[in-house]
Amino acid sequence: MHKYQEILEARDFIMNKTAHRPTIGMILGSGLGSLAEEIVSPFKIPYHEIPHFAKSEAVGHANELVIGELKGKTVVVMKGRFHYYEGFTLDEVTFPVRVMKALGVENLIITNACGAINTSFNPGDLMLITDHINLVGTNPLIGPNHDKLGTRFPDVSEVYHQGLRHIASTVAKEQNITLQQGVYAWWSGPTYETPAEIRMIRTLGADAVGMSTVPEAIVAVHGSMKVLGISCLTNMACGILDQPLSHDEVIEVAATVREKFIKLVKESIARM
Ligand code: HPA
């Protein structure tokens, strides 16, 4: 668990740099960072300048916080995130979520690129996350609990807030955007899954699989934030089609959803 003091130091650093006071946070996944370019009067802070932030070097990710206005709301956006597979601790992975909460963020939109397991889905579809399965065998809340941050045993019966899901699915219908719904399974990576692992994960009840999101969502719920999870299904999971997976393909497909992804998220933000 982070020292409470470190969270406050990061928060104060950001608040001293900008007069923006965000109430909506966003974590942009692989290939989805262009949403940050929509922000009006953006103020950018590289992660490495923020006290106690880890330093990320993942391929396909920028590494900065962008704070500004979107659809009349003040937002703070993580352009690029910290992944467990990069060797970061879950404290490091989730520290920015704690800082967003301290900044005043109430709604957190978590996005990712992931593989589709449900065979009625197609690469290039967006998916509203309805629930998750933690397959990684660890949890970001392991360690002493800081009561100022949240309760020891958080209820996770509704990690992905029903009201926010309703907003996103309403917007998708209105805008004629296909928005699948399903359960996201967290896989540590950095290997993709084997075909046998995908058969297992499907049997366990997941519709999609990816290497992020779940730790951040758990910490957000611990901090009583409302979470909206949106996945970009960049590929059919391993073994579903007879073809190997590549990171280049993931980034390429994520880039093709740019327009509908931006429309969906912006209009959802307008209604939050
Ligand atoms: N598996 C895990 N993570 C991913 C995938 C996948 O198939 N595609 C994009 N991220």
TrEMBL record:
It is an enzyme of class 2 (transferase). This is Purine nucleoside phosphorylase. It catalyses: a purine 2'-deoxy-D-ribonucleoside + phosphate = a purine nucleobase + 2-deoxy-alpha-D-ribose 1-phosphate. Its EC number is 2.4.2.1. The purine nucleoside phosphorylases catalyze the phosphorolytic breakdown of the N-glycosidic bond in the beta-(deoxy)ribonucleoside molecules, with the formation of the corresponding free purine bases and pentose-1-phosphate. Cleaves guanosine, inosine, 2'-deoxyguanosine and 2'-deoxyinosine. Residues 23-269 form the Nucleoside phosphorylase domain. It comes from Bacillus changyiensis. Pathway: Purine metabolism; purine nucleoside salvage. Keywords: Glycosyltransferase, Transferase. The keyword Phosphoprotein does not apply.
